[in-house]
Amino acid sequence: MHVQEPLLFPSEQTSFSGDLRDANFPWNKLCFGPTFEKLKLAVFSKTWPIGAAPGGMERHASTLYHALAARGHEIHVFTVPSDRRPHSDIHEGNLHVYFAANDHGSVNCSLAFEIFNKIGTDVAFDYVHTESVSLPYWRAKMLPHVAVTWHGIWYEIMHSKLFEELFSNPNGVLPSPTTELQEAMPRLIDEIKFFSRSGPWRRRYAELGSSVKVLGALESSQLSEFYNAIDVFVNPTLRPQGLDLTLIEAMHCGKPVLTPNYPSIVGTVVVNEEFGYTFSPNVKSFVEALELVIKDGPKVLNQKGLACKEYALSMFTATKMASAYERFFLCMKNTRYCQYPLPTDC
């Protein structure tokens, strides 16, 4: 059973004192002050966003590490461009992005490590951050300081299923779950095609008539115009999400949201019914939630939208997220930073 959290706005900072490693809530609920200690971080990320290519993890990484670089930390990212085309490396102040692709467009770990070793020769990296399975275990085990974050989208779910099966079947026998993975792959491909405005899902939605418009991927400059043109943002996904950026974007624009009640969503983003509507991942519950939206009408939707915007600004800005990540890495480097509050904290 999911227990909803109370609303948390800037005027209601979480009351906490002690070791941050004992905290059972997201660190961005706290207010961290400035630090004079600077970090040298290496980041291995699956892709780096180019244009309007769909994808949440890479955009989160780009926003986060631009913000950390702006705070004075030296950031080196080893990745590939999201459009899988040749691009020059990026060097913007403290942010350095190295595109190291193999023939298939994925990260070439050997090439990335050649660059990594050259950069770390004079001054060692404080920490290496690998997003999901960007850095394979046989490489990661050779490094002294590694932080791993896991991001839940389809192909990473399949990685998880494979690892689960390998651990449960040490002899290497892969029975029925292989069939499940084989069935999941076509759905993943269909979903990617839909976000690119092609594939079977685009045709299915188009068959619903002129009231349905398939927009495909939007440029960043078009997103605010899109969100501000709607009354409620509906995300009828039938699979678990990580930190869903589309919901956060809509909330930043003051729009209420309608989304499945997966723990990963109601536990991190839509934590209160004042932010919108949730439904069980089935058609009946979805229709009931849509009917409630219509019944509530513009006045209630506007109130929920204002609550969404206030919450999003208190939790999900680049500055807020970068501040929490900064403290996380500093804590791992020096346990003094694991204590909260410090005299410099707000």
Automatic annotation (TrEMBL):
<feature type="domain" description="Glycosyltransferase subfamily 4-like N-terminal">
    <location>
        <begin position="54"/>
        <end position="155"/>
    </location>
</feature>
<dbReference type="Pfam" id="PF13439">
    <property type="entry name" value="Glyco_transf_4"/>
</dbReference>
<dbReference type="InterPro" id="IPR028098">
    <property type="entry name" value="Glyco_trans_4-like_N"/>
</dbReference>
<dbReference type="Pfam" id="PF13692">
    <property type="entry name" value="Glyco_trans_1_4"/>
</dbReference>
<protein>
    <recommendedName>
        <fullName>Glycosyltransferase subfamily 4-like N-terminal domain-containing protein</fullName>
    </recommendedName>
</protein>
